[in-house]
Amino acid sequence: MRLDYDARLRLRRLAGVLGPVLLLPAALWWYLATPPAAVAGTLAGAGQPDDVPEAPGGSAESSSPSSPGPAGTSVAVVQVTVLADGSFDVVEKIELAGPVEELGLVDRDLSPAGPTLAGAEPLRTDVQVVVRGEDPVTVPDVGPERTVPLPAATTAVEVRYHLEGATVRTVPGPPGRALGVVAPLTDVPGLVAGFELSGDPVRTLTCPALPASELFCGTDQGGTLAVAPQPAASALVLAQLDLDT
Question: In terms of Cα–Cα distance, which of 210, 209, 228, 208 is closest to 218?
């Protein structure tokens, strides 16, 4: 019996040595023969979903803001194209925390913009509220505050308009130098709003509602100056502009 036990022990030890040696070539062959993406997915572990669900109303890439907020927060990205005459073409892209059937619009308090813009008289024209797959809703008169019924319940909506009278020439200053102001028109409880400003006249951005250390708030993103989301109720962006003289 002693010899049989020793023989079994030696066989186990031999298997322990030869097992990894025999498995190594097989593992190497699998690594070389398998596409890199599949290797990465296997090494990362199982259980990951094959498909990511689309955001409501379309793909996440096409409808999600570039600067998302925390889960359960309604987020707007205010995209502003500054024209040579100092007027703005604006698109507010809003992702809502839950479905809504109406949307609030409100004129924001511009007094934090300072005395230079005290004489500004912003006027919005061609205001449209757009829900994907539905006809645009034209808003003839926004007024200080207005609620717009939507054609369908949605979590994704756009507000488009042309903004005039929000730019004041800076005197004294270089020829064409001006200061413009923009704030979100959309009014949703708990809304946070980021900004993206583009156009040849745009020089720098400041955010008077932010702490002094964050006053100069524009980040260059390849021809667009972007501002991180902040509470929409106080969100205000001042743009230093060089306009046609």
Answer: 228
Q: How far apart are CA 50 and CA 36, in angstroms?
A: 17
Phi first, then psi: give them for residue 116, nearest 5 degrees: -60, -35
* 67 in Cβ contact with 228 (< 8 Å): yes
Q: With contact defined as beta carbons under 8 Å apart, do 159 and 129 qualify?
A: yes
- Quote the CA–CA distance of 137 and 150 in Å, as a whole number: 8
Q: Is 164 helix (H, G, I), strand (E, B) or coil?
A: strand
Query: What distance in Å separates the CA atoms of residue 95 and residue 73, rounded to the nearest whole number?
Result: 9
**What is the CATH code for 60-242?**
2.60.40
The tens-digit pLDDT sequence of the chain (245 residues) is 444 545 444 545 544 544 444 433 343 333 233 333 332 333 233 333 333 233 333 333 333 334 445 557 899 999 999 999 999 999 999 999 999 999 999 998 888 888 888 888 899 999 999 999 899 999 987 778 899 999 999 999 999 999 999 999 988 888 899 999 999 999 999 999 999 999 999 999 999 989 999 999 999 999 899 999 999 999 999 999 999 86
Rounded CA gap, 4 and 46, in Å? 44
Strands 88-106 and 75-82: what pairing?
antiparallel
